[in-house]
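input
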Amino acid sequence: MKRYKTIIIDDERLAREEVKRALEKHKEFEIIAEASHVDEAITLIEDLQPDLLFLDIHMPGKSGFDLLEELTNVPDVVFTTAYDQYAVKAFEMNALDYLVKPLRDERFSKTIEKVKEELSNRVKLEPTTLPMHQKIFIKDGEKCHFIPLTDIYFIESLENYARLYFGSDKAMIKRSLNLLAEKLDPKVFFRVNRSQMINIHYIKKIHPYFNNKLQIILTTGEKVEVSSRQSVKFKNWNSL
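output
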C-alpha cells in the first residue's frame, strides 16, 4: 500500500487532534509531524519533504498562504479553516481541497478520496540530475534550440512553464521551475527565490540588500534579488 507522508499545521492543538483522528481511518496517510506556527512548519517541510499538508489558513503572525509563499518546493495542500471566505484564494493556490472546521466525516472522506486519486496519478521524475555537458532540445514556437546546460544562465517561472536564458536567446519550456530544480545539478543551479534560478558560474557580483537579502549581478547584466531564506542558504552553501 502506498503511504503518503503528511504534516498537520494548525495553531490550535485541538484542531490538530481533530485532523489526526479523522486520518486514523485512512492508513495510506502517515503523519510524520505537526506544527503550531509557520516558521516551525517551514523547517519541518524542508527537512522531511512531505507529500501532503493539512494546513490551517488563519494563524497568528503568518498565515497558511504566507507559508506557501516562503517555500521553495511546495507539497500538495488541503486547507483547513473556520472561515469560508478564503475558499477562492485557496483554490487559486492550487490546493487539492478546502475543509471548513469543525470537520465532518462525510466531507473529510470525500476529500481523502480526491487526494488519493490526485497523488496516485502523479508521475514522479527520476531523482537523478542531468550531467552538465548534456544538451537539451527546446522547441519554442517556430524556433528550435539544441543547447548544453552549461549555456543556461538564468531561469524564471511562468506558472507551469519556465523561460530559459542562454547566450543572446531565451525560450519557453513546458516545465515548472520545481520540476527543473529536480533535474538540474544543485551544485550549479541555485534557486534564488520562488520564481527564479541562476547558474552560479555566471555570477559577477554579490551585494548585501534590504532585510538581510542579497542581490546577485550576473555576467550577462541581470540583477537578481535573493529571498531572505535563500540568502541564508546561499551564504552557508558558499562558506568554507
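quick obs: The chain has a mean pLDDT of 87.
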